[in-house]
Amino acid sequence: MEEKDINELTEQEETLSGNVENDDPIESEELIEEEPADEDPAVEDESEEAPAKPDAPKKKKKLAKWKIALICVAAFILFLGLAAGIFFLVGALNSHERESLDLEFHNTKPAYAVSYTATELNLIKKAMKDDADEDTVKKAIAMIYAKANNNKINNSPSAVAVLRGEGSATLDFGAQKPSGTMIVRGIKAQSGNEFYYQKGAAIIKCSIPPLQSTLEDVLNQQERLYSNGVDDFRATYNSETGLTTLKGADALISTDKVIELEYIPFLKMSVPAKTKYKTYTKKKLYEKAYYLDDPREITNFKITEDTIVLKELKEGEKYIELNEEEGYYTCRFSLLVEGEGHDECVQNSRQYLRDSAGSDNLEYGKFDVTLEVWENGWLKRMRDEEIWQGTVSVPVLGSSTTSSDTWYESIIFYDYNEELFSAEDAEKFEGEDWVQKLIAAYKEQIDNAPRK
Questions:
Q1: Cβ atoms within 10 Å of 10's Cβ, excluding its own
Q2: DSSP readout, 28-51?
Q3: pTM of structure
Q4: More confident residue, 191 or 208
Q5: Between vectors from CA 275 to CA 268 and to CA 288, what angle results, nearest 5°?
Q6: What digits encode the pLDDT tens for the residues 24-43?
Q7: Domains of the chain: which residue ranges?
Q8: Residue/partner pairs of 73-82 with CB below 8 Å, 24 or more apart
Q9: Distances (CA, A) of 247 to 201, 251, 375
Q10: Angle at 203 between CA 267 and CA 425, to 5 degrees
Q11: Which of 1, 70, 340, 380 gives a 20 to 30 Å CA spacing to 146?
């Protein structure tokens, strides 16, 4: 369905304003006719007709100036109410849903030897017991994460992470609280030191459709990054912010088709051929991309014993458990998002969100993690459920207290899997060198784009 542009609404409001002004019966002076008083019947003269009396003049009564002003103000308020009502009614009537990508990904355990030491395995077993104390559980989870993170960065000849998420955000403007749905899609591909990253986010639904284009201008984004890990570090460049994230119309996210299969499922993002890529030093790129240590890391949250929080679990769940049939551990925990020490945990991720949303006070309210790690120590999947809140500036509408409730996950593939590709691309990328082929295909797009 065609989205209604906010500018069209402004023109409609002007038309409504003109109609109200032209049809308004209220004038600076109001004519009030007084009925003539009843008279006795005239006595007829048989010899001569009595002359007709002239009509009595009509009297005018002027309204006081304060009454005129009051009426005008009342009319204006009525007009605003009607215009606002029409605006939000049209939005409600045109509300619609768009289908988002819903695929099941089936990754498999890589054929790597167990990387845990005997001491580390004993710690895991101890932490899995029902009577395990909190410190032991935290220590085991922190170790499992550190092992998976190190293996992904340093001990994975090749790997691809499929990124996806979805969330709802509510903007509070007082009387009106429009809400929208955003989806996120992307990939991280690594082969040795070579690395490619791409992520896009788009608003796909708004409770008040006339506002959707406005929210897209603020929240739609795309970024791409390539590095050979030695002397070539390139990324998309936002000339207004100096960051790697393209926003609004510059993000080049399609509005007519949200999802596609282009190599790997993610948002349909036009190849930013006209977008300049900036060449960075390694240190500068890592700073601009908000990494803790390395672009291949699992997350830029700092996960240690001190930042892990153990919340009450649902019935039947455990903080650490082993799926013996499929061969992977599941860890359930939360991260420290408030109080002493939370800045160290969230600062990189929080700063990324603040810069992306244009907020200087955004804070996390929740960050719950489900971490799945193969029993040999390599990452299988990481999923988080998060809540954040902050003040966001929206063009035309002004500042809003905004809250978001989202989920996000990365699913790791170490071996070729045809489920990741369209039928057309599956054969092209098949083989042991599938990740190298994938990175090369994306790198070619960047090579053909101008540099800043």
A1: 10
A2: SEEE-PPPPPP-PPPPPPSSSPPP
A3: 0.75
A4: 191
A5: 90
A6: 333 333 333 344 444 444 43
A7: 1-24+60-94, 95-447
A8: 75/20, 75/24, 75/26, 79/16, 79/17, 79/20, 82/16
A9: 10, 5, 40
A10: 5
A11: 340
